[in-house]
Design a protein that fits this description.
Strand content: 25-35%
Number of strands: 30
CATH topology of the largest domain: Spore Coat Polysaccharide Biosynthesis Protein SpsA, Chain A
Number of domains: 2
Radius of gyration: 22 Å
CATH class of the largest domain: Alpha Beta
CATH superfamily of the largest domain: Spore Coat Polysaccharide Biosynthesis Protein SpsA, Chain A
Helix content: 10-25%
C-alpha cells in the first residue's frame, strides 16, 4: 500500500459488480485508517435503458460527457485513492481496456475480479473478504448509478467519530412515500432505529443514498451467497445498534433509469452553474438559451440553433441549422440534422436524427440508430442499429 508525503494511509477495495480502492488519509484523521470504496456495478440492461447497455457496460455510459465510473474514480482519487480492485460480471474485457487509460492518467493501480454468479448487494463484500480484511480499517461501498458531490472525507471522519460498525449516506426527498425511509432512534440524530418501506404515514424524509462506509466486522454477518445488504445485513446491524446515517448535502440522483438519467443531468448541470464551472458553455453564446449547457469542444453547431436549458453534447456531435435542443443528452458521434426538435431524449453514439424530426417524452436511441426525416418519436426506446421510418406515437421498445 502506498503512502503519500508521509501521511497515514488507508486502502480500499471493491468486488463483484464492485470496486475496491486504496486511500491516503488526510493528516487530521486518526492513524492507520483503511478505507475501501466499493462501486457496485450491475451488468444489466437498465442504465440508460436496454438500448444503451447492450453496447457498453452501464458504468461506461457517459454522464456529463464523462463515463459514470470516471466521476467516481476522480472523486476517490481526489481524496487520495491509489489502488483499485474492480470486480465485474458483465463484459469485463471492455472495462479492463477502457480503464487502462485512467490507471495511467491518475497513477493508480486497478485490478479486476470477475464474479461467476450474481451475489446481490452484500455477497460481493464476502467474496472480497481476503482483500477487505487485510487489517481493521473501514471501507467505502458505492452504488455505481449514484451521482452527487461525493463526501468521502467528511463521511470517513463522521464514521470514526461514532465508532460503530457502519454508516450509510442518506439524502432528503420531497416524496418519501415512494422510497424506503430511514428512521432514527428517538432523541438521536444519526443512530438508525428502523427502515420503513414506502410509508403511508410520514415517518421521515431521509432515504438510502447508495453510499456506505463499514468496519471489517460487517463481513462476519455476510455469507458467500446471493445476499441483500439492504434486506438482510442492515436490519441485523440496526438490531445491534451498529448502523448510523450521514446526511448528504447538495444534489443527489440515482441515474439507473432513462428518466432519472435526464433528471440527474439537469441537477448536475445546475450544480456546475452554481460553482461557476468552466466545463459549461458560456451563456453568452448566441445559440445557448436558458443556460446549463455543456458542449464538447469538438462538436459542431449549425446556424440559428436554440440549445438549452439542460443539454449535454458529446465529442464529435454535429448539429445542423435551426435545431432545437432541450433537456437532452447527445452522445459521442451523433448527428441531428436541420430543424429537428429534440427534448427529453438520450441520443446514442453515432445515431442520426433526420431533418424536421421530433423526439420527446424520454426517448432513448441506442448505438447507430437512424431516425428518418420528419419522423415523430414519443417515448420510444430504440435498440442499436435500427432505422426508424414510421412514427412512434406511443412509448414502446423498438427491436
Amino acid at each position: 500500500m502506498k503512502a503519500n508525503n508521509g501521511q497515514d494511509s488507508f486502502s480500499s477495495v471493491a468486488l463483484a459488480l464492485a470496486f475496491a480502492l486504496s486511500y491516503v488519509a488526510p493528516q487530521n484523521l486518526a492513524n492507520h485508517i483503511r478505507a475501501t470504496p466499493m462501486l457496485r456495478f450491475c451488468g444489466g440492461l437498465t442504465a440508460c435503458g436496454v438500448s444503451q447497455t447492450l453496447t457498453l457496460p452501464k458504468p461506461l455510459v457517459e454522464f456529463g460527457n464523462k463515463p459514470m465510473i470516471v466521476h467516481q474514480i476522480e472523486a476517490l482519487v481526489a481524496a487520495g485513492v491509489t489502488d483499485i480492485v474492480l470486480a465485474v460480471n458483465y463484459r469485463p474485457e471492455i472495462m479492463e481496456k477502457f480503464l487502462a487509460e485512467y490507471e495511467e492518467k491518475y497513477n493508480i493501480n486497478i485490478e479486476f475480479s470477475v464474479e461467476t454468479e450474481p451475489l446481490d448487494t452484500a455477497g460481493p463484500l464476502k467474496l472480497a473478504e481476503s482483500i477487505l480484511a487485510k487489517d481493521d480499517s473501514p471501507f467505502f461501498v458505492l452504488n455505481s448509478d449514484v451521482i452527487c458531490d461525493y463526501p468521502f472525507q467528511d463521511l470517513l471522519a463522521f464514521h470514526k467519530s461514532h465508532g460503530n460498525e457502519g454508516t450509510i449516506v442518506v439524502t432528503k426527498v420531497e416524496e418519501p412515500s415512494k422510497y424506503g425511509v430511514v428512521v432514527h432512534q428517538p432523541g438521536h440524530r444519526s443512530l438508525i432505529d428502523r427502515f420503513v418501506e414506502k410509508p403511508v404515514e410520514f415517518v421521515g424524509n431521509r432515504i438510502n443514498a447508495g453510499m456506505y462506509i463499514f468496519n471489517t466486522s460487517i463481513l462476519d454477518r455476510i455469507e458467500l451467497r446471493p445476499t441483500s445488504i439492504e434486506k438482510e445485513t442492515f436490519p441485523a446491524m440496526v438490531k445491534d445498534n451498529q448502523l448510523h446515517s450521514f446526511d448528504l448535502e447538495g444534489f443527489w440522483m440515482d441515474v439507473g433509469q432513462p428518466k432519472d438519467f435526464l433528471s440527474g443531468t439537469c441537477l448536475y448541470l445546475s450544480s456546475l452553474t452554481k460553482k461557476g464551472s468552466k466545463e459549461l458553455t458560456p451563456p453568452t453564446e448566441p445559440y445557448v438559451h436558458g443556460g446549463n449547457v455543456m458542449i464538447h469542444p469538438s462538436a459542431k453547431i449549425g446556424k440559428n440553433c436554440r440549445i438549452g436549458p439542460n443539454v449535454t453534447i458529446g465529442p464529435n456531435v454535429v448539429i445542423g441549422d435551426g435545431v432545437r435542443l432541450q433537456r437532452c443528452v447527445l452522445l459521442r458521434g451523433s448527428k441531428v440534422k436541420d430543424h429537428a426538435w429534440v427534448k427529453s431524449t438520450i441520443v446514442g453514439w453515432n445515431s442520426t436524427v433526420g431533418r424536421w424530426a421530433r423526439l420527446e417524452n424520454v426517448t432513448v436511441l441506442g448505438d447507430d440508430v437512424t431516425i428518418g426525416d420528419e419522423i415523430y418519436v414519443n417515448g420510444g426506446s430504440v435498440l442499436p442499429h435500427k432505422s426508424i421510418k414510421a412514427n412512434v406515437d406511443i412509448p414502446a421498445i423498438i427491436m
